[in-house]
Amino acid sequence: MTTSNTQFALAADIGGTNIRAALIDSEGRMTGRGSINTEPKRGIEDASDRLAKLLKAALATTPTGAEIVGIGVSTAGPIRPATGIYNHPPNLPGWHDKTMKSRLANTMTLPVWIGHDATLAALAETRFGDHVGAENLVYVTISTGVGGGIIANSEMVTGSSGGAGEVGHLSVRTGAYKCNVGCDGCFEGNASGPAIARTARDRWTGEGILADLADGDPQNVTSRMVFDAADDGDPVAKEVVNLTIENVAIGLGSLLNVFNPEALVIGGGVVQGLQRHWDRLQASVIDHSLPGYGGSIPLTATRLGDDVSLLGAAQLAFRQARRQ
Ligand SMILES: [Zn+2]
After folding, report:
1. pTM of the full predicted structure?
2. How far is the C-alpha of 198 from the C-alpha of 19, rounded, in Å?
3. Ligand 1 centre from 174 Cα, in Å?
4. Residue 210, H or E segment
5. pLDDT of residue 47
6. Cα(122) to centroid of ligand 1, in Å?
7. 50-70: pLDDT as tens digits
8. Structural contact between residues 89 and 105, judged by C-beta atoms closer than 8 angstroms
9. In 3D, which of 168, 187, 304 has the Cα closest to residue 245?
10. How far does the centroid of ligand 1 lie from the alpha carbon of residue 135, in Å?
11. What's the pLDDT at 4?
12. How confident is the model over 202-250, as pLDDT tens digits?
């Protein structure tokens, strides 16, 4: 058995589909990883008890003599971070006005700290990503939805009721598409994965590379197909990719102007497509940010992958434990 004086945190990441957990040390090394289906309809108490089992399994991998500072939980929101109480979470039906904080703390006999997944992704980037020590960092995830997390002057920006960071509803193209919430021309309505697919469907010609990739059915179109077809020269797909780059750049430029971060980090499924057009994206962000940024904007794609929120949860635990 190994021994260690290192501090460890238990970390969990709760999404609408999966709950993941691991034991993580202060350098971000993970052991005892596990995952279960969230099954939110079974209730938050049931989820808390199943998560506790996962955490106990992770805990069993602790080296002898190591200190466990507590449990950090990253979750889909909206949520009030101090209490962990959910506020009509769209992907966790039935969890409104409830929290697992005290139940989980009692079962595990460890302190529990809870944060919004995108905010904790931003926190993880300041500790484990390419921007260790950054005091001002904005993280934007562009995927099925568009969300964000903000670190300003080294603090997590949560807002008065935990709702800060909803960068997906920044207006980028009024008069174009609405998101599910109904705001006109927002980032999410015009640059998320589903928005990219819908924009391509609305320009469907029934022929060409995109039509082939979608087997001739516009309902099959995905954002990945749009990026792939654009790479192969499909004119409609290229037009949609160009529009997407500009929509993303308008959103990111606004965030640069408002927060003046050392780093603006993007993650999420759509970023794989955007990375193939990085120079153009960067040039377009420069076009849509204040002249003070000149030619050097601090835009990067995350390297932390799917573990970003889990790492953020661990960092939340280390940070809160230090402050107690
Ligand atoms: Zn919106």
Report:
1. 0.92
2. 30
3. 11
4. helix 209-213
5. 98
6. 21
7. 999 999 999 999 999 899 999
8. no
9. 187
10. 28
11. 52
12. 999 999 999 999 999 999 999 999 999 999 999 999 999 999 999 999 9
> What is the 184 CA–ligand 1 centroid distance (Å)?
7
Q: How many CB atoms lie within 10 A of CB 43?
A: 13
| Same fold across 7-117+306-323 and 137-303 | yes
What's the 186 CA to ligand 1 centre distance in angstroms? Answer: 5
CATH number of 137-303: 3.30.420.40
Q: Show the low-confidence residues of the chain (pLDDT under 70).
A: 1-5
Q: How many angstroms does the Cα of residue 179 sit away from the middle of ligand 1?
A: 4
In the reported structure, the alpha carbon of residue 168 is separated from the centroid of ligand 1 by a whole-number distance in angstroms of: 6
CATH superfamily of this structure's domain 7-117+306-323: ATPase, nucleotide binding domain (3.30.420.40)
Distance (angstroms) between ligand 1 centre and the Cα of 210 equals: 27
**Domain boundary assignment for the chain:** 7-117+306-323, 137-303
Question: How far, in Å, are 9, 51, 106, 145 from residue 22 at the CA level?
Answer: 9, 11, 19, 26
CA distance 2 to 316: 26
Which amino acid is located at 100 in the chain? M
Return d(Cα 297, Cα 24) in angstroms, integer: 32
Compute the distance between CA of residue 227 and CA of residue 206 in angstroms, rounded to an integer: 17
Tell me, in angstroms, the distance from the centre of ligand 1 to residue 185's CA. 7
Residue 264 Cα to ligand 1 middle (Å): 21
* Separation of CA 166 and ligand 1 centre (Å): 9
**Rounded to the nearest whole angstrom, what is the distance from the C-alpha of residue 226 to the centroid of ligand 1?**
22
pLDDT at 5 (0 to 100): 60
| pLDDT at res. 1 | 43
Q: Which residues contact 293 (CB under 8 A, 6 or more apart)?
A: 256, 286
